[in-house]
Specification:
seven-stranded mixed beta sheet, two-stranded antiparallel sheet, 14% strand, 30% helix, 13 strands, Alkaline Phosphatase, subunit A, 9 helices, disordered N terminus
């Protein structure tokens, strides 16, 4: 007999021989509606990092409050503007004597006070994502998820350029950069089924579950499974492309994800992050679009006809052509973030969407890559934090406001009873 009114656990999964798929938020998990039940959708925090700052003149909106026009660089956010908050005048204190780019990336989320130095000389402590994860990660399969869209492993730079998440002094939360590895880890895919469709493996269990679901839940489950399949297909296409590359006998050999375009790589990593968040496998995630400084050129298809050195471009802003190209690259990064924000807003959750229960931050640890300054860091927050964040505004803080005030506000929105983080002087009034 089909029992459509029973509850199933938020931790429920569908299984096959060698693979496990966590379920998204379903109405059956809360009896009637998740939003109206004691099983409220959790608030999640995610961070999207862009290196080398931005071209300042094209970044800032023209006014504050709700009646502002998005700047040329921020224009891709227009479809989701009511669910994003533009934050300006947020600073970090720069410690002299250490590399400006390494410090920008590694210390962006720590915002440690200038006198709180690591053995390497950086103001680096536990980062805000790990502070939050230490608390909310007790309730999820993965405490946190760290992803990188860096296709290189040439070690031309130290770990401080290539990681934004830290457990503490000298203890890095290393990021994953192979989408297939991330997929297999999230969904517990065993070696003997790694080359099969996970959906095929769990199909029987999925069909059995569908018999117990109402129409709304069946639609939601179907949409989720289709999302999983889309990611699988993305990874499969890269593997096929890799076979073609191998046949050309190009040296040195490239790895599968290095065959991706920049947009494709960032989006597939973002899709994996969204899958993890919507299934409550984790409530904290970070994505690096690319490392700080980094001498290895990256190819940005559709913008440039050859690999470009983002860091080198920032030091050529005096040239009008270079500055225009750099503005295009800044806009490209905002486009990638905006695409992920839009995807989150399409995932229904209770009476809202996944985005409504997110604090998804776009930012850079350096404001102007040519000057190496940490004042007025480019910052955008997407989501409503379960109703705690009043979105759709440009909030301009008093000059000199520490970005740690934002991290403190986030921690409080995530339920942590903290009154200080790093060099914070109070929280931001974002509600």
């Amino acid at each position: 007999m089909i029992c459509r009114n029973r509850k199933i656990s938020r931790r429920s999964v569908i299984r096959g021989a060698g693979a496990t798929l966590a379920l998204p938020m379903l109405e059956i998990m809360g009896g009637k509606s998740v939003a109206r039940s004691s099983v409220a959708a959790p608030v999640r925090a995610a961070f999207f990092y862009v290196p080398n700052g931005v071209v300042q003149r094209s970044w800032h909106p023209d006014a504050t409050g709700r009646n502002f026009q998005l700047s040329p660089t921020l224009k891709p956010l227009e479809p989701v503007r009511e669910k994003v908050t533009i934050l300006t005048n947020l600073d970090r204190v720069k410690v002299a004597g250490t590399d400006g780019h390494a410090q920008a990336g590694a210390c962006w989320l720590s915002s440690a006070a200038p006198d709180e130095l690591s053995p390497a000389g950086y103001p680096l402590k536990k980062t805000i994502d790990q502070i939050i994860a230490a608390e909310v990660g007790k309730q999820t399969a993965f405490r946190s998820l760290e992803l990188s869209c860096n296709p290189y492993e040439d070690n031309r730079e130290s770990i401080y350029f290539d990681n934004i998440s830290w457990y503490g002094h000298g203890h890095v939360a290393r990021s994953l950069r192979d989408p297939k590895e991330v997929f297999n880890r999230l969904f517990s895919v065993k070696d003997h089924v790694a080359n099969k469709s996970v959906l095929d493996v769990v199909l029987d269990d999925a069909r059995s579950l569908e018999q117990e679901l109402g129409r709304g839940d069946r639609d939601k489950l179907g949409e989720y499974l289709e999302s999983v399949r889309t990611v699988e297909k993305q990874i499969e296409r890269v593997a096929q492309r890799q076979n073609e590359i191998d046949g050309l006998k190009i040296a040195p050999p490239v790895k599968p994800w290095q065959a991706m375009s920049r947009s494709e790589f960032i989006q597939v990593m973002g899709d994996l992050m969204i899958l993890a968040l919507r299934c409550d496998l984790t409530r904290v995630a970070t994505v690096m679009s690319s490392p700080e400084r980094w001498g290895s050129p990256l190819t940005v298809h559709g913008l440039f006809n050859k690999p470009v050195d983002h860091h080198g471009m920032t030091h050529g802003q005096g040239n009008a052509r270079v500055r225009s190209e750099l503005e295009s690259l800044d806009r490209f990064h905002v486009e990638q973030f905006a695409a992920l924000v839009a995807k989150m807003d399409k995932v229904e959750e209770g009476e809202g969407t996944l985005l409504d229960n997110m604090i998804f931050t776009f930012g850079s640890g350096i404001s102007d890559g040519s000057l190496h300054v940490y004042t007025d860091l480019p910052t955008v927050v997407a989501g409503r934090a379960g109703g705690a964040l009043d979105a759709g505004r440009h909030v301009k803080s008093a000059q000199g406001t520490p970005i740690a005030n934002l991290w403190l506000s986030m921690a409080q929105m995530m339920g942590l009873g903290l009154d200080r983080i790093g060099d914070s002087t109070g929280n931001l009034k974002l509600g």
